[in-house]
């Protein structure tokens, strides 16, 4: 069940009526307190305030007819206008937003959200040129759908901002310190950029703020607190590494800028690194158990050990953490861990959903790993056997895993079932999903 903060962001239309969209479209949802505003753009802009309830959006959009749409664009515009007027069931699944009612359906892919920029960032380039002194920007959620922003250059610029119509907009007030021409120009560019609107782009260095007048490249300043948690490996040097078990990395803050490291591949590897200016460096080799793994696992373990000794730059982008130097690059994704009362799942996912949302801690959890395109279920109860049944759209490309069973119904939908015993994890499916419905049944033992 998505909250207003979770559903807000900028999206790009992927599918309409179960097929690849015939016309490009963007959708921005933002809120200020209880007021939720939708802006959709195909050929023309459609804007309006909507009523948001859990998993439901309804409201009138006003069309600004500045352009003459072609037939396909006009059809998408009309479907969006009518859809919001009638009301959409809204389902946020990982980075995809499904809007559906009895007459139409849309799938939007999220391209940016305000939380992408939360934290403190160093300004490492202005219009592709490095700055001549240290400059920072800090974004902190304001609890009302927007963000406080503080910019430190020669002056301190402070204000609030939010995403409106796909752009990061806001107003800044400034202290009155005399700045040289170069620094004053940067301050003015940021102030004017927020006033007119910045496009938010995620790139290798961090966040790029792009306006009609120029660009500001940000690199998040990573703290021990930012690193804390468990991660699964997404890729090593751009490739997926075949391993027996999921490679994981756990970071634990210690004193004096130190971070504890625990890595599991074939072996368990432990050590301590120092975090200075986004660089993690271990003064001593990491300690490892002595299990003989595959060649790929041994190479990965050796790369971790050597990488931390030489130093790895940490780049944080939302739930994704990149560790890299000139010789190697690890891309990690933060594990979404359910709040369990027992041992917990044996499979690590990047997203986790409670299946029984109003019962206790959720009892049964659906675990999705976007990197591996796999689903699993974990039963956290002690005395209930859970039966799971899912119906997937006919355009899905999936296969059942382990004990899961799959068949097709007369309409071509894929039906997958599995039984999950208490305190166990069952793998479910692998592949690409195009729409789904779930039913759960708890059977006392």
TrEMBL record:
Pfam families found in the cross-reference section: DUF1935, META
InterPro entries: DUF1935, DUF306_Meta_HslJ, Glyco_hydro_b, HslJ-like_sf, Smp-1-like_sf
Occurrences of domain DUF1935 (ranges): 341-444
Domain DUF306: 9-103, 124-214, 226-329
Protein known as: META domain containing protein
């Amino acid at each position: 069940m998505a909250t207003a903060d979770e559903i807000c962001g900028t999206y790009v239309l992927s599918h309409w009526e179960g097929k690849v969209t015939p016309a490009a479209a963007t959708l921005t949802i933002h809120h200020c307190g209880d007021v939720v505003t939708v802006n959709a753009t195909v050929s023309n802009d459609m804007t309006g305030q909507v009523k948001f309830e859990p998993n439901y959006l309804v409201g009138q959009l006003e069309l600004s007819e500045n352009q003459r749409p072609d037939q396909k664009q006009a059809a998408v515009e009309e479907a969006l206008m009518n859809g919001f007027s009638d009301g959409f069931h809204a389902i946020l699944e990982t980075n995809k937003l499904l809007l559906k009612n009895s007459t139409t359906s849309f799938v939007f892919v999220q391209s940016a959200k305000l939380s992408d920029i939360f934290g403190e960032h160093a300004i490492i380039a202005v219009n592709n040129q490095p700055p001549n002194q240290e400059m920072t920007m800090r974004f902190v959620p304001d609890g009302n759908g927007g963000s406080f922003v503080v910019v430190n250059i020669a002056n301190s610029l402070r204000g609030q901002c939010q995403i409106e119509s796909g752009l990061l907009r806001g107003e800044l007030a400034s202290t009155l310190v005399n700045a040289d021409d170069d620094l004053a120009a940067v301050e003015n560019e940021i102030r004017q950029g927020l006033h007119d609107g910045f496009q938010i782009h995620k790139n290798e260095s961090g966040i790029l703020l792009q306006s009609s007048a120029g660009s500001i490249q940000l690199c998040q300043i990573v703290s021990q607190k930012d690193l804390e948690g468990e991660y699964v490996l997404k890729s090593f040097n751009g490739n997926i590494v075949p391993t027996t078990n999921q490679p994981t990395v756990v970071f634990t803050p210690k004193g004096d800028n130190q971070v504890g490291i625990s890595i599991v591949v074939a072996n368990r590897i432990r050590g301590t690194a120092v975090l200075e200016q986004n660089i993690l460096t271990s003064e001593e080799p990491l300690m490892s158990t002595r299990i003989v793994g595959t060649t790929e696992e041994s190479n990965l373990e050796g790369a971790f050990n050597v990488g931390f000794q030489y130093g790895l730059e940490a780049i944080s982008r939302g739930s994704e953490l990149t560790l890299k130097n000139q010789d190697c690059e690890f891309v990690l994704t933060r594990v979404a861990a359910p709040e369990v009362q027992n041992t917990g799942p044996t499979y690590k996912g990047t997203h986790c959903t409670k299946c029984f949302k109003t019962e206790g801690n959720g009892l049964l959890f659906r675990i999705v790993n976007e990197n591996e395109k796999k689903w699993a279920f974990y039963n956290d109860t002690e005395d209930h056997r859970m039966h799971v049944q899912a119906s997937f759209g006919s355009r899905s490309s999936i296969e059942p895993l382990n004990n899961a069973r799959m068949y097709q119904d007369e309409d071509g939908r894929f039906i997958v079932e599995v039984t999950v015993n208490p305190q166990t994890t069952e793998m479910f499916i692998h592949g690409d999903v195009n729409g789904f419905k779930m039913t759960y049944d708890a059977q006392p033992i």
